């Protein structure tokens, strides 16, 4: 068979995913390392030649993420929420990682990050970059983990509000309401960070 | 307020903030402050809520398609001046553009592509491809005119500008009915078919890529774009497609083909019929999940809404009704997860839509193509020989499996073990040993399969021997045992990386499914076997086997293509050129001949059957096979008008089967109805009655209530009709109809034929009023679906019957 090797890693992934869903964030690292090398290659291919004007639809990244995770053999869709949330977190990590690398290259700051369509709103903020979003999201995560997860799903994975509602087993109206609040809150935090780019967070 | 201060404050007042936010978010910004003062006494909380509300407003102001209008009207790109933005797609924004040529202003559509969609050689490729793309000269396709780089380095494409409305909006605004929508859709199919013939795929078919002019002319946009998008492996097709409409293979970065466009057409058709795309969850992630899990979309009629019905001029219930059955089947046949399960070409999809529009049965519903086709399926079943012939076959296949092994290590040891195995097998089949009078062949094979590992230890040898036994199970009609055995062998071969054995197991596993009527399963296995067998290190014997089974079964189950026939012809040539064993050569010849019969090319099939006969005559153990060929030749003579010549052939076929497999064998029983038919045609109906009446008890015992051997009752009824025994005819026609109704689709031709003979029996007794509904049913089921001459003749008979029994025409009693 030409399928990805059906290694024993499958069991690990399931365990890691379980631990991660129980709130153990450290288990994200091995998961990330497992799927990352190939993703990085794809992400780079997509990011290459990017001009500030353009938008990126990292569909390829999302696809690869799914295929990779699902091919880990014993990983099933028993818990779709965990799976999608993990995918969203990984998407966030990929974009942040990319932004960090870019930022190291160009010390002038103000990195323009290619955004998924759903992340369009962020680009209205002058000089906002993904690292700021990441920082603001971490703040949000400390206060209200569920909202930060929703934001990841909606804006990093590109899930629609219906899909998000479906995954979290709540109504679409609730998702829309919470997202609107979270978006306002993040936007406010971003404006704050943008005004004080060097402020310690 | 400092960052940490604000965050800490927010954390402490999180619930209050949210509830105030929700309470005041819909109040206009100018009145908020006042309203808040009344509703919230805490000044600090008020300030935070206000700040958050303002931020939320600002965030929401970002237009959804921010990249539209990045270029202002009057901007100059290359030689073009932009007029206005007219749309946005997955890979860029589209503008109406003008260009001055020889004093004349020409309008065109200019699409600015996202830079990641193309690579540096994009323009060069455009010019290289231009000749090819110029071939896309079709009234329903907009032409690509130019390509270039804007001054800021963004690539653009220029195409013909079309004034029109998106397909879905066009249909909805005019409240077009289903039939009108399908006729527009046929224009779309036409364009795609045309492009496929030039080997150009679209890969982004969706309603917004299809415009309809005010005159109702369809224009497809973006054809040829796929050729210019970069093809560097990773992100090829996925980048450009819109997730909502993309095929699973595009979502999974797998190879794309014309089948991806069949899928795209399916999504367009689904939306035209139902009013929304096939998958409700349409984000890239959700669609990828569906693709990975091979989730098939909802059926059309389950997705109907009252609003969609109103736009089609129907009530919800009527629309649901209209989308059941044929249309649901057509859409589903486009939207299978696996490309190989879809319609093999857009031509066939078009044909299906036309068939639907002219009220003819569609293939997607799995009906057999014609009377001849159904007959073929029946006769294709190999005879169940409950005699020692099968035991010889077992021994033969085991030895044969042996000889296949190329590496001849321990050959002597092997043959000793082999003999021991056969010896113990016969011992176990011995009545003294089993305590039963006679061991049946299926029992014998099962015991053999269970004992085999005790005698053969080398795993690839074991697989080869198991394949031999499992094939015997298949040939002796033990389908359940064969299915389990082939599945096990395929799984073990897969684990061991033995692709040849896996392919061979899947070929037969597929054949079992086809025999069992599980067409979809059979097709999957046959296609997979074909793929594997064409891989490296697979013997040509297995490749040829996989090709003939694949091609024949596709054709036999309504997925008929010219390519399949070519494949069968090539397989026969390969058998000769590669000097494959007689067994494979004979199989290839018989499937090719069978395929030709399916296509109504009886006369072309005849010499092939004769070659086959010559091949079998050289082999003394092939009496049953020879009998089958006699049966075919008889059938062809009968069908092509040489009825007299067919009679001795039928006798040979029947006698041969009786000798090799017994008078209660399937093969023998299968000959009788057709033999009887030929006797009726030559005016010897009384002999036909004798023939069938004497076999009836055996038939009842063996075939029981199986619908696929119902020909016995059909022709018995006909022979009674021909001899004027109308009450007997009525009795057996009723039994036939009852048998079929319990087992076959009420729309099948066999049911139509049963109605016809019942109608004839009643009419012959002058019970015209009772005969009339049966005559009507016969006309409905037999006239339009006829493909073969035999089928058309049945249709004509049904029509005559209806005329005879209709009140205005019928003679008064």
Description:
The complex is a heterodimer of chains A (201) and B (813). With 201 residues, chain A is mainly alpha-helical. Chain A has helices at 9-21, 28-47, 59-71, 80-105, 130-143, 145-156, 161-168, 172-195. In chain A, α4 crosses α6, α5 packs antiparallel against α6 and α7 crosses α8 (172-195). Chain A starts with 8 loop residues before the first helix and ends in a 6-residue tail after the last helix. In chain A, 44% of the residues are buried. Mean pLDDT of chain A is 64; it is low at 1-10, 45-58 and 106-128. In chain B, the strands form two sheets. Chain B has a six-stranded antiparallel β-sheet with strand order 1-2-3-4-6-5. Chain B has a three-stranded antiparallel β-sheet with strand order 7-8-9. In chain B, β1 (76-77) and β2 (80-89) form a beta hairpin. The longest helix of chain B is centred in the N-terminal third of the chain and has 20 residues, at 178-197. At the A-B interface, α2, α3, α4, α5 and α7 of A face α1, α2, α4 and α12 of B.
Q: Order of strands side by side in the largest beta sheet of chain B?
A: 1-2-3-4-6-5
**Termini Cα gap of chain A:** 50 Å
Can you count the beta strands of chain A? 0
Radius of gyration of chain B, rounded? 34 Å
The largest chain-to-chain contact, stated as pair and per-chain residue counts, equals: A-B, 59 and 56 residues
Short descriptors:
A: mainly alpha; 8 helices; globular; B: 813 residues; alpha+beta; six-stranded antiparallel β-sheet; three-stranded antiparallel β-sheet
